[in-house]
Amino acid sequence: MRAVITPGAGLPAELVQFQEPRCAPGQKRVNVLAGGLNSSDQQRADGVLGARTEGPYVIGGEGVGHLENGERVYFGHSVRPWGSWCETTLVDEREIWPIPDDLPADQAIALGISGTGALIPLEEARIQQGERVLILGATGPLGQIALQLARLMGAGTVVAAARNMAALERVRERGWAQEIAQIGTTDDIASLGAVAGEGFDVVLDIVYGTPAEAALLNTRKFARIMSIGVQAGPTMTIALKDLAYRTHYGVGTGRRPVEERKAAFYRLVARAIAGELTVDTVAYALEDGPAAWADQAASPHAKIYVRP
Prior knowledge:
Layout: E1 2-6, E2 14-17, E3 27-36, H1 39-45, E4 57-58, E5 63-66, E6 72-75, E7 88-92, E8 96-98, H2 105-125, E9 132-136, H3 141-152, E10 157-162, H4 165-173, E11 179-182, H5 188-193, E12 200-205, H6 209-216, E13 219-227, H7 240-243, E14 247-250, H8 258-273, E15 281-285, H9 289-297, E16 303-307
Parallel strand pairs: 9-10, 9-12, 10-11, 12-13, 13-14, 15-16
Antiparallel strand pairs: 1-2, 1-4, 3-5, 3-7, 3-16, 5-6, 6-8
């Protein structure tokens, strides 16, 4: 079958003929309709998030497809060496979740790893009515979902921060953020301070590193800082006095129990079907997968997916 693989750390993706999957007990074959991509897929391929899987493997983990009985499903974690950028993949049956026909495939994919990655930490932050919420790294699919969720959860002011000013303007024009701040230019502390008011109450930090340091320095007492990604760097440095009266959480979602992630996914599906959530997406044909892999590294401000 055709598949797009990552042959090794730091190497370009390749379109190849790959072995068909064979089921083991507790697994099912899924005929892929659309396969998603996350920044974490590239970080894992390069060994940033733990040891890289040995040998070449198919890119992607999540997608939408049909089971052999025709049922339309979302699947979250393909069994290596298979992935979602191929014609047929192999998935643990616990990670296969039926989806309604009126939910588009691209939106279902966006609500999976990205959506639950936004929902779970924001729920745990317990946003109070009228609070000022900062989404740090707001223009990608996870950030777009987080902006909309923060408003739905009762935030008084939602602030979007990211590097790309044009993308920031777009989320403000759509009503997803009331205020915006560009980071990564000169002084992140000052840029965020200009839109912090009396201080952020909640920060959803998708990037970590020095931008997260600047965000924390612009919080008020009793703020909750929820860090979930490391795109800007794996470490941050904060004096204890600046952390006082604040709580900083390192939130993991992908390795939580299946039932917890599944329930969160269906809460998002309900909001999407009700018209409360939408995510920008970009489609590629499977043969253009190597170009899509390269485009992901350039921060496309949308959910990339391929169609076999």
